[in-house]
Design a protein that fits this description.
By secondary structure, the chain is mainly β. It has 6 helices and 18 strands. Strands 3, 4, 5, 6, 7 and 8 form a 6-stranded mixed sheet that branches. Strands 11, 12, 13, 14, 15 and 18 form a 6-stranded antiparallel sheet that branches. A 4-stranded mixed sheet has the order 1-10-9-2, with helices on one face.
């Protein structure tokens, strides 16, 4: 179940609020001794996150499906998507799982149960396991946003009390407010440079067409450039995948790509997604001051559209 993006959270007793964690959405699926961590695009992440798998095996149930987020946190508990992506470069971060919903418990399907009933079982089910509980944030929507912004966290999720869980759908019963403007984009090309990459060329799908959103140069270290370049190289192709390149606009980095600059680029099969932070969309539909946060292995490229 996914959330709609909003510019303002709803107020009132009908809503509860949680931190929007900056990580990978996943399900913990336990069936007796069998345990799987499954991403939202059906990838098996069990071997990738052995500490989470070990904790999930200690869940207080014979059978359970727990919805939540894989997050890398520092010693103060602050999440970092970059640390989750590049763990070897951030040895001080721990990989944890924050649980926020319970979909099945010992043979009982809870998806049609009210949100509060599903969550009421979580403290007991998680007790002593090492899986963390995403707690409800107290106060009004205004209070919550002020507190989360002060902590420099990514955003807030609002969930309607009494709502049921609708798998695979983006529901108006779940709403998300991003305090840090970012979203996923499809990587359709790159400009070669130091350590393999000078900049990424990213876009989004509009119907079946891949639209160019901008060039991304910031947010890289030499280690990250080499790591991302290794993931891009097998995807190279001769054709540009963007339907609206080249364009005739003056090309600042982050703006368009001229006909002459097309010769400098390397084009890719549009299969890889990246998380990008940016300041705003320009009037001609490009990203301003974009920075790379990490590759998203949990997103299908064809599902990525312009969010704001």
């Amino acid at each position: 179940m996914a959330a709609h993006i909003v510019d303002r959270l709803p107020e009132g007793a009908d809503w509860m609020y949680e931190v929007k964690f900056d990580g990978y959405r996943a399900l913990l699926i336990k069936d007796d001794e069998r345990l799987q961590i499954r991403s939202r695009n059906e990838k098996d992440l069990t071997a990738t996150y052995p500490t989470i798998a070990a904790a999930a095996r200690r869940i207080q149930a014979e059978q359970a499906v727990v919805d939540g987020e894989i997050v890398a946190v520092d010693s103060t508990g602050r999440p970092s998507f970059q640390a989750l992506q590049h763990r070897s470069a951030h040895p001080g971060h721990a990989i944890v799982f924050y649980a926020f919903d319970l979909l099945h418990l010992d043979g009982l399907d809870l998806t049609n149960a009210p949100l509060e009933k599903r969550r009421a079982n979580l403290p007991t089910v998680l007790n002593g396991s090492g899986i963390l509980l995403s707690s409800e944030l107290p106060g009004s929507a205004t209070d919550v946003v002020t507190a989360v912004r002060a902590l420099r966290l990514e955003g807030v999720i609002a969930k309607r009390r009494g709502s049921r869980y609708v798998p695979g759908e983006r529901s108006a019963d779940w709403l998300k407010l991003k305090l840090d403007r970012q979203q996923e984009f499809v990587v359709g090309g790159y400009r070669p440079g130091p350590h393999g990459i000078d900049a990424l060329l990213v876009g989004y799908y509009e119907g079946s067409e891949l639209r160019f959103a901008g060039k991304v140069r910031a947010g890289f270290t030499p280690h990250v450039r080499r790591d991302v370049f290794a993931q891009l190289s097998p995807l190279e192709q001769p054709e540009c995948p963007f339907v609206d390149l080249p364009n005739s606009k003056a090309s600042h980095w982050g703006g368009g790509v001229t006909q002459e600059q097309m010769k400098e680029m390397r084009w890719l099969k549009p299969k890889l997604a990246a998380q990008i932070r940016f300041v705003e969309w320009t009037a001609d539909g490009h990203l301003r001051h974009a920075a790379f946060l990490g590759v998203r292995q949990d997103k299908r490229a064809l599902t990525i559209h312009r969010e704001t």
